[in-house]
């Protein structure tokens, strides 16, 4: 018996040791020890990992280490990597992203100011130091490509981590980290320029924490605990920078950095780690998709990946409870709960059932915790509070923390935050502040937390305690009280069922009703369990519950007299400036105050001479003062290539906004949006200018990306088209060898085989010439045959047509000649075809058809392209040529294809393009689809 007891005790002791066993984990760092990994140091030193029984080993980087392979093989549990982890996943690595420590990448290019490199275009033929891996510098590569700088245009020097190569002019440009090498330049007082991909629209993450799919699957709880401790460590490190640096200097300073260098690194990394209100370490699926798209466009992606399985979502793991908390739930079985029996849409007893927002939440809590919540029936909220005081209830489902309640209840974090509003009669004007309600009677239900809060904050309010919301709103209706204060949700619900025509919401205030679960003060374990449970509910689930119950019309009175007065004043000012121009000079100071407050450039011309300009004009055009601008003619600000177009616009008394190139004082040209307006009865013209150079750059980048994507698809087409000719050539050559070997080769067979080989070789040559001509894209107007032009297009898409089982029919008059840009016209065909293809791919059970028809009508050349895809919905057909309009996912379309087509046809070839839905017959079958018509003028060179 004693032996049995001893064995049982030994087993219990062993199991207890196992339950408390420390998990030995490791992380492979991306570089040597420095502040870049401070969060891991502090999480280790401050015991944040220890709290979760984690013993973490930090592994410095050694040259030749393959971090992804080490993590995938579980040589290291976790790793820190570049965004190129996306490519590793594409190549088959089974890894999962956890957190992005840096929301913005510190990778930049640096030049010395003394190098006279003033733009990226000046990089050509310069010596540059880049990291060996193009994958690591994809953001930099994209920045260069978007500015038409290719690697072949640069003299690339093998990279080594030494900024002195730049300082000593051994290279002109170098890759650098904002947090490291820049400090050296600052310390040496060396003037420099930074070329940051982020400024050109290529915004990448960096220092991405990841693990293997295998480890995540085996132990998701440990992964989540490691994430929590790591984030806590980083937040501590950034909040206690001096303490963290002391620790690095003492234990983690293998690079022998100075305190000043570590301080600088900490400052820069903190700026890169925190962006707007994004939580530390957050990874956005949209941003990862954007990085993936860029990798794809520069030809680095081998296989597509599914982002849903690539980014770890902590909420996907089950709730993490301690052994004591699991035991508590197993023993408890039932938790007694009191609610407010009349407080819809939050909660209510209806026909003996518990319904409302809180009811939906507690159904979730029950499923998560596997415990029953026993709802104790009460007559009103006051009775519920009494039951909670007397411990008849373990919890209150929805309650707000107040000083008086804290004596007998503890409170979880809020799971509902609802705006506070006031309901009044219809004739009450808009109320912007509760402080304005001096000596006004307002109703609030008895026992509500806001009674205590509002009495302290607004002592001039007269608070009338009512039985419930129904009682309070009835008193407002009768005129017994001025208004009822409550949540927008509860009042909105009552307006839907009652009081809709008698009352309104007259004001919405900054205060919010923060509602959590109130837990009896002597039960800390239950408080912790419920807090964890609330945190496990994700935002979409919370929003769905709210959407199920809340629908509210918010009414705000407008002071019509005030608005009318404003309109009268504006009208008087306009008449004032139109009628008395000489007063313009007298009140120049007041007028300048107005125009200088605007972001756009404003110039005023009289009789074709500039008489005034605002501060934005001086800054935008690079002048030192207004005196340099006054006296100039309008075309002095316009680039030569746009001068004729602007002249035409200036003839109009009121020009709609239009784009043109303008020129700065130093001769620099940039794109701008212009608008001109003649002032009535005066020779005065007001012109406004908005700098859109960045927008044009982004648009150009997107168009280039769209073109690169089209090129990639065409390369696939060519590969498909070459298979059969290559097979014929290979078979013919092999056949000749065999027939010669066995003495069967005759002159006829020889000539026929050679003729077949030659024909197929010529076909291959023609195909590659078509592709080369398209890629070359020379923008040179020329006379060309339309039939040959469309034939080149059909050959380019032949592979796609076949792989998507599309039947293409063409009917073209081979006598039609055009004068224009043949390559751009092919790009237009491709854009229209790609949109039709994407629609046809969704068609099942019927043929996929595309018809191309070309003819002359009314002295115009018509190119018709139609499909049988069912047509374009009426609500979007008028928008499809708009820039950035797309019905596709962001990862599949930019919305620029058809917009680019519209511009190429209208501006480039003086034509027009239209689209209509058409119904037609083919082979005695009825079809419906979209028909694009390109209408071009007949003209000679």
Outline the fold blueprint.
Elements: H1 2-19, E1 23-28, H2 38-45, E2 54-59, H3 67-72, E3 78-81, H4 85-90, E4 95-102, E5 107-112, E6 127-130, H5 138-146, E7 155-158, H6 164-167, E8 173-177, H7 181-187, E9 192-195, E10 206-212, H8 213-218, H9 220-239, H10 241-251, H11 259-273, H12 285-297, H13 323-332, E11 334-338, E12 342-343, E13 347-350, E14 353-355, H14 357-369, E15 372-376, H15 381-389, E16 395-399, E17 409-411, E18 416-425, E19 441-445, H16 449-457, E20 462-466, H17 469-478, E21 483-487, H18 488-497, E22 503-520, H19 524-535, H20 539-549, H21 560-579, H22 582-586, H23 588-595, E23 601-606, E24 609-613, H24 615-621, H25 640-650, E25 658-663, E26 669-678, E27 684-691, H26 693-741, H27 747-776, E28 782-785, H28 786-803, E29 806-812, E30 817-820, H29 822-840, E31 848-857, E32 860-867, H30 897-908, E33 912-922, E34 925-937
Parallel strand pairs: 1-2, 1-3, 6-7, 6-8, 11-15, 11-16, 19-20, 19-21, 29-31
Antiparallel strand pairs: 3-10, 4-10, 5-8, 5-9, 12-13, 13-14, 16-22, 17-22, 18-21, 18-22, 23-24, 23-27, 25-26, 26-27, 28-30, 31-32, 32-34, 33-34
